[in-house]
Amino acid sequence: MRVIIELDAELASRRCARFVADLVRKEPNCVLGLATGSTPLLTYRELIRMHKEEGLDFSQVTTFNLDEYVGLSSVHPQSYRQFMQVNLFDHLNINPNGTNIPDGRALDFEAHCRQYEQRIHDAGGIDLQILGIGSDGHIAFNEPGSSLGSRTRLKTLTSETIRDNARFFGGEDKVPRLAVTMGVGTILESRRCILLAFGAHKAAAIRDTVEGSVTAQVTASALQLHREVVCICDEAAAGLLVRRAYYAEVERAQSLLEAGERTQLGIGNQLG
Ligand code: GLP
Is the pLDDT of residue 172 over 70? Predict the structure, then answer.
């Protein structure tokens, strides 16, 4: 896993937005996997700026969101559909028919989840998945104990997640108890993932995810099995990582490679 540690959330989000923008420019009809929560907000703000000021074109992009609360209609202010409209889609030239979010009011969830997986498959799979992380190390709504091979399905929220999200609903008793979420297995099939984390309250989850064992108790740790993951955090979220110096070394080497400074890395040198 590549670990990029930036000074603050602003710089980290700009870095993330650059990864997204590079892909959209290279493959205008790419498929993006999107996340909700406070973590990706600055990334979305930067993408909106790039669209408005630099003409970043989203007209052919398809998106799939990770999850949605069960019981909330698409126009409920706390629904993830509303979140995405207000914080991203309404400000881009994206085709509304190309934006997919699970339906929290589906009548037959089993069929709906199957169809959601099928839609991802029919779109050619997700090229780049953006992820936040819960304070208990969950991705999407794959709470601790979720099977690491799980697919899109209904999930019962833990009391910790309900508590974390109560601030948006004005009280724990108003938070939905269930969500429909992509599975860990679904997420692992994305071609690339970016995991974002900001703040000291995410430090333990990031330590367990990056340097802990792969376990269903920390579903983000399954990303260690993925072939291309970049974890971008701020200093606070990286606060408990033991191998920080090495991650910085890797980034230095990466920058030299990107700048074409190969000899400084010993490439082409006769070392002995
Ligand atoms: C919810 C979402 C996750 C998100 C997490 C963290 O559980 N389903 O996708 O990563 O919250 O939210 P925040 O970014 O607000 O800390």
Answer: yes
Among 103, 143, 208, 234, the active-site one is: 143
- CA–centroid distance, 37 to ligand 1, in Å, is 4
Q: Is 129 helix (H, G, I), strand (E, B) or coil?
A: strand
Query: Given this model, what pLDDT does residue 164 score?
Result: 86
pLDDT grade for 270, boundaries at 50, 70 and 90: low
Closest CA to 98 of 51, 135, 62: 62
173 carries an active-site annotation: no
The whole-number average pLDDT for the span 59-68 is 98
For the stretch 136-167, what's the b/e string if a residue is b when 16 or more beta carbons lie within 10 angstroms of its beta carbon? Answer: bbbbbbbbbebebebbbbbbebbeebbebbee
Give the distance from CA 65 to its chain's centroid.
9
Which tokens belong to 147? 């099977």
Q: Given this model, what pLDDT does residue 271 score?
A: 60
CA of 26 to the centre of ligand 1 (A): 29
Ligand 1, atom 12: nearest CA belongs to which residue?
37
Dihedral angle sign, alpha carbons of residues 215, 217, 218, 219 = positive
pTM of the model: 0.95
